[in-house]
Amino acid sequence: MGNKLYHGAAWYPELWDASVIEQDIALMKQAGINVVRIGEFAWSNMEPTEGKIDLGFFVKMVNLLHENGIETVMCTPTPTPPIWFTHGHPERMYVNDQRQVMGHGSRQHACTNHPYFREKAALITEHIARANGRLPGVIGWQIDNEFKAHVSECMCATCLTQWHQWLEARYETTQKLNEAWGTQIWSEYYHSFEQVPQPGPAPFLHNSSLSTMYQRFSMEKIAQFSDEQAAIIRRFSDAPITHNSSVAFSVDNERLFRELDFASFDTYATYDNPANYLLNNDLWRNFKSGRDYWIMETSPSHAASLASYAKPHPNGYLKAEAVAAYALGAEAFCYWLWRQQRAGCEQPHGSVISTWGKPTVGFPNVLEVEQARQEIEATILATRPTQAEVAMTYSDVSKAFLKTEPHQGLNHRGLTTDFYERILNTGIHRDVVPEGGDLTGYKLLFTPFLPYISADLIQRAAAFVAVGGVWVVGPLSGGRTEEHTMHTKAALGDLEQLAGVETVYTFPMDGSNSIGSAFDIAAPLSLWSSVFEPKEAVAVGTVTSGLTPGLAFLTEKSHGKGKIVMLGSMPAGDEGEEMLNRLIVHYADAAGVSLRTDVTIGTIVAPRHGADCDIWVVVNMDGAGGSVTLPQDGFDPNTRAIYRAGRLEIGRYEHKVIQFHR
């Protein structure tokens, strides 16, 4: 891609006439939009009747944009198959877990595993890639749109057949499957793979292995579809390929991005939840290591549909979002959408320009983003994000486990965001790393809410600890096997011996009046918990009341040059928040973490580095202002303003770029 920061929007020229298109491009140039994405829902425009494909309009649009200095991310239109594909063909459609067959309309209504869908999707993608792949205006590709955003696991007949094939490839024999899943329970024993059902309607709950493995099957199949699409595009284009995903969707993002060139995400986090927004940046930075990510969608003001709307951003917040994103490693900050839609189900959604061609309430903020982009671009392009010394493990596979076994409504996204926010609020610079991510360079690793911890992760984390790292495991981590069954040799499997503990009990501590004491504070304990008898470990946190007084809920054990820490329960309430804060700071100190600041809560420091300098980009995200202590004198590389060592105040949604000489 170009040596620039991108400021973009989704655009749907197929919905408007030539005069509106001309007006849009003029307004884009005024707003500083230098990239748009097109085509993602336009299958019926490209192929109005089956087999009659014409890409001339979109070639014209790419060239017109390029002539006006605006580059294009070209999309494949596969989330919205036309009526000729769907009408009279219920067998091609998505079927939900209640066995309801989707009809035409909305999007994601087709089963992406159906062979005829794959055939037609491959054909339209090949035509688009042939027509647009070598155009100078096309700088990137987006496959489909938001896989599994509105749907999850399909229960159609096609998926049932492919499910059986997937099971046979995985287990080889039904005997191995039955043993792995424990199917003698409730007479679930299977004599052939064809007998294994999909986890649809049932009087009670399905076997945990069945439910979780069907999710993993679905995640793998949608990733394979993405792989197929990418392979077609690469035959005709050298431009990099992505998909716009989210932690909220029923996908395994780590697997999905494995065969793509760069990672991008969509976010509609509201202004009063900046941790939600920042977590995405700290995670997507690590899906394609060394390659900048894109924010492909965010609203310039508010998200909305016919059924709902979110709170509009306060003035100034959009600029804070954009500067934080660029500083944390984003190459692009893009809106959904450019011109408000005059029809359909998202008419009320926030946009840059209204249907009648006038600026929206978000437009002045878009101009602020463009001004900030121009001011910081040279500095951002001359530096790279500095790797954090502290990381938190993220796993979409664990999301599947917690969907199967949510206990009392636990939500994976909420749990991980809350834990991440506690790290964020300490002022420690942090990464969120995929389960299979490289641990090189980190000093402290948190692995919460991974019911299943793979042997590979245990091995790599043990090696990380042996050379001096500190690994904090839990809560809710390690208690399930890969097949979503219980361990039988120890409650937490092989993890226990490594951690030097014996898990005495596992049970839900909510409502049990359990109190734990650690770091000179006592707090209620909550969630499904493990309590330990230290063997080679030592107790750091002890249960003082409830069902298990005297046992440990927090232990540590030396391993090589580092430590393995087991957090068996989640401290709760205000006291629990303070305990977790002390835990994070204590182990950051123990690990020798130095990449941290005393920045006030609600303001962040994004560190970057160049050949001979270090950069701090300080951004207030909560609208309340904040402050941070500068360790030495610095200056703004754009304005040359001097910042003296000591306390620096940051105003409401303000940002400052500070360069330090080494």
From TrEMBL:
CDD domains: A4_beta-galactosidase_middle_domain
Single Gene Ontology BP annotation: carbohydrate metabolic process
Domain Glycoside hydrolase family 42 N-terminal, first and last residues per copy: 11-375
Keywords: Glycosidase, Hydrolase, Metal-binding, Zinc
Any one Pfam family match given in the protein's UniProt record, by short name: Glyco_hydro_42M
Residues reported in the UniProt entry to bind substrate: R107, N145
The protein's enzyme class: hydrolase
Active site: E146, E297
Superkingdom in the source lineage: Bacteria
Hydrolase keyword on record: yes
Residue ranges of every copy of the Beta-galactosidase trimerisation domain listed in the record: 388-593
Enzyme Commission number: 3.2.1.23
A GO cellular component entry from the record: beta-galactosidase complex
One annotated GO molecular function: metal ion binding
Reactions it catalyzes: Hydrolysis of terminal non-reducing beta-D-galactose residues in beta-D-galactosides
Residues annotated to bind Zn(2+): C111, C154, C156, C159
Record-linked SUPFAM superfamilies: (Trans)glycosidases (SSF51445), Class I glutamine amidotransferase-like (SSF52317)
Similarity comment: Belongs to the glycosyl hydrolase 42 family.
PANTHER family in the record: BETA-GALACTOSIDASE GANA, BETA-GALACTOSIDASE YESZ
Protein name as catalogued: Beta-galactosidase
Taxonomic source organism: Paenibacillus pectinilyticus
Phylogenetic classification of the source organism: Bacteria, Bacillati, Bacillota, Bacilli, Bacillales
